[in-house]
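1st attempt posting a full record on here, be nice pls
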Amino acid sequence: MKRREFLALAASSAATAAMPAPPTIAADSAASTEERAAGDFLVRRIGAVVAVAHRNAPQRVLWETAANGNFLVAEKATADIREFGEPEGSFEIRDKIAASYDRATVDAFDGDPTRASFAGRLSGKGGEARFQLTFEAVSATHLRFTVVARGPDGAPLNRIRLRLASVAEEAFFGFGQQLTFMNQKGNRLPILVQEHGVGRGRPIVTRLIDTFANGGGGNPYVTEAPAPHFISSRLRSLFLENLEYSEFDLRPADRIEIKTWSGTITGRILYGETPLDLIEAYSDYCGRMRALPDWVHNGAIVGLQGGQQKVEARLGALRRAGVPVAALWLQDWVGIRLTSVGEQLWWNWRLDETFYPRWRELVADLKAHGARMLVYINPFLSNSPGHDAQFAKARGGGMLVEKADGSPYLIKNSEFYAALIDLSNPATRDWIKSVIKDELIGKAEASGWMTDFGEALPFDSKLSGGADPAVWHNRFPEEWGRVNREAIEEAGRGDDILFFERSGFTQSPKYATLYWLGDQMQSWDEYDGVKTAVVGMLSGGVSGFSLVHSDVGGYVSLSLAVGGRKIPVIARSDELLQRWMELAAFTAVFRTHEGLDPSVAAQFLHQRGERRPPRALRQRLQRARRLSQTDGRRGGSARLPGRAPSFSALSGRSQHPRFALPISARPRPDGRAGRRQRRGQRRGLFSRRRRLDRPVDRRGGRRPRRLGDPSGAARQAGGLSAQGRRDG
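the predicted structure (as tokens):
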């Protein structure tokens, strides 16, 4: 047995032992029981309850409807959807229910060796609706379930609520890259791709962002990369195949309620004996991320910007300090525009040779030192005069998302608007792949790029061939990753090029080469700071996003202009930057970012009081290289995600994983500054004195409230926004 397989087996065995006993099917003499086989699964009707077990563990419940028998609701509804935020890409969805049918009555239970089916009625004010619940074996570990409902006149309904049994102590993990909570019991989660917000419930900050950034503060339950999938502490797991918007309501102690904005729910029940088995079974559907290219492990991916002269000077400083560099990441390769939020990019996806006049020499110099060049792209196109050539081509070819009147649907980002490419159109897919191959891989000679955005497809837009934007909204980031993957494979660089995304959905891991966690604040907190990077990586790993990292030091900073000077309000300190670097040493990739406003944030190239890169950076990168080589190269493993969760967390006993890394040893200044620094160290992320699952008040006591939701008001299900700009 290989060492890794032995450790995986030991971890999963320990986790299973620590978990509450899985639910079992109790004999009820008063209730009649019927059973049918569907492949290796057993489907039972026990009175008014429908339950599923597996042939290998016939007494263990894998799936069970609510105990009172009222397990299904079908509705006819109309949605009112509002898109907001800066940039736009957050959503509030309100439903107006016209008709509702519940109180399910089962009339028939039949099937064959591979399937079992229930047919019955739902009651409502307008009469009776009909439903059918079908189970069909897909494999030895996958059982597909389908629920279809039709109204009294036979017309399809467009909302379904499925109620499943749970218990108060059952913990739920996964749901994609969730950033605030590891255990989602007690929350209602909107499974909708959208901006994750700035502040995300942090007092004062979130309210300010909501006020001045068009509602962009966000809340603890939204993310750019959700997935309708979970694994529970009772070794139960399911996911939906639906692309439409759905909600998972885990607030009731005794049940789970799953609502889809569709007349059909299609999902799968998974069987496994350990959490790792369940992750492996799920990845059979969502796909497995390929291993990282070897060159990624040669050092840091260093994010720089500012033009040829500035980049060359900083690269020279890195080399003189002996810092190993795997790649430079220059997001401003297309040139910059000045806006009210700072420097932003020209989204025309062409090299700006006035900003980087010696680009090819820079790429050649990197190659000579064994390093690569990375750039940036997103699915928007600039319509600004002088930078609108790609926009004109796409508009002329009918390759843009349109309004109902046929005009391009322009989406706001700070002070400017941009058009979104229509990936439902095969011609658009071919064209954007040619842009990637010709401009990024060809002229820019890039070995990778950030594949940004993907959350903003409007629900009232017009797509090619009459495609439904309500279905394509969550599908868009999957297809955005897919065209990037197809482009690098068509260029013959499928195993060599690295692109990293932030938006995604259920099957995104099949196409993505790397993920990052979006635009976090440069702060210590559990709302939107460094702690959310830990939770996001672990949560994402449960749902198949196995290779995930974050911007070292965070991205979003806030400052005030006073007398011509910028006064930092939220900006990373030297201490936070050092700690985030230590965290990054344990992730798949070590990538730095200067941040939204580099002038107010500590930078590893010029920390306060230092004229050269910190001496500890070289050692941290060497440690990161050793760790990432063993971690990132297993990206395609069927057994473990590249960033496997701590399975003690899957016992449901703690809200956040704990870490006990030592504080960096370095000289401490004397006086008041020294006291402040030491006090900050004691309260830091990796301090042994502070638990990460609950905030500490000034008296040292534990606050009873849950993380990220100080007032409870943030528990609304509507999507909120993010202001953090990848490119300003």
